[in-house]
Design goal:
17 strands, hydrolase, mainly beta, 4 helices, glycosidase, hydrolase activity, acting on glycosyl bonds
């Protein structure tokens, strides 16, 4: 589908880990295919019996259940991780998939903790909003009105430099961020703003899709979540507000949402994606 300018009980956290979102009523949900990098198909809810225990222990991602729905929760910790954005190869050709990005990384690159698609894009795979990669601003902040999730105000920006990562609404970012960050990606809508749910998000809307998002807690940790089944905006937003206690959370995308978790043997494939957020492991001190 065309993608132009474009959304309880939790298991203990100790055991944790785009095409257009708007689908016509009655249209089947399109699911990103989850692949096991070892060659087989990976289930949506991996069990201990089917997962390598050492890989799971080293993974930054863990399965969670929230309001009877399965999610994967991945945590980036400033002391252990470095965050970058990625879009295209050295010739400027967009990767369009996590697999293509994985293949293009050099052997000398830092090991990957995990990566996700991270921001909305046009048919050519180019970001429709603010995008910074390696301190180079590729696309300016987008404050235009329009249809679709991206323009559901307030939208926002996930950005950072060094060990400091933040999620801010677009207007907050414009008013208060004066230095260009090392990385940044704009998406929308915001799911949680100042500890409150986005005012226009219903409890459980009719739109049910595979979705992913990011939020930063008060300790500076970035929490990435991807659903393993179709969920509403409201359920994803409540997970951030009620269980992860994240004051600001940003919707990254839906329908094409994908995760690369090397330690868990997961590399999702499916519809072409655009910007990516990559969490690298820092060298052991």
């Amino acid at each position: 589908m065309k993608r132009v300018f474009s959304a309880a009980v939790l298991v203990p956290l100790a055991v944790l880990t785009s095409a257009c979102d708007e689908q016509p009523e009655g249209e089947p949900v399109v699911r990103t295919e989850i692949r096991d990098t070892a060659g087989g198909a990976a289930g949506a809810s991996p069990s201990p019996a089917s997962s390598d225990s050492r890989a799971q222990m080293e993974s930054s991602c863990r399965p969670v259940i929230f309001e009877d729905e399965p999610f994967v929760h991945c945590v980036a910790v400033p002391s252990r991780h470095h965050i970058v954005t990625a879009l295209a190869d050295g010739e400027g050709t967009p990767f369009r998939s996590l697999a293509a990005y994985a293949s293009a990384r050099s052997a000398e690159a830092a090991p990957i903790a995990f990566a996700m698609n991270g921001g909305m894009y046009n048919d050519a795979g180019q970001p429709v909003g603010y995008f910074v990669e390696g301190s180079d601003r590729k696309v300016e902040l987008n404050r235009n009105g329009g249809p679709g999730n991206f323009h559901m105000q307030p939208n926002g920006v996930f950005f950072g430099s060094g060990d400091t990562w933040e999620v801010r609404s677009t207007e907050d970012f414009l008013a208060n961020v004066t230095e260009r960050p090392e990385f940044g990606t704009q998406s929308g809508p915001m799911l949680v703003i100042g500890g409150k749910l986005h005012p226009d998000i219903s409890n459980n809307g009719e739109s049910q899709l595979i979705r992913n998002a990011v939020g930063v807690d008060e300790k500076g940790r970035a929490h990435f979540v991807i659903s393993n089944g179709p969920v509403s905006f409201g359920k994803l937003a409540r997970l951030y507000r009620d269980e992860l206690n994240v004051p600001n959370a940003l919707y990254l995308d839906g329908n094409v949402s994908a995760l690369w978790n090397p330690a868990g043997g997961r590399l999702d494939s499916g519809a072409p994606i655009g910007p990516m957020i990559v969490v690298e492991k820092k060298p052991a001190s």
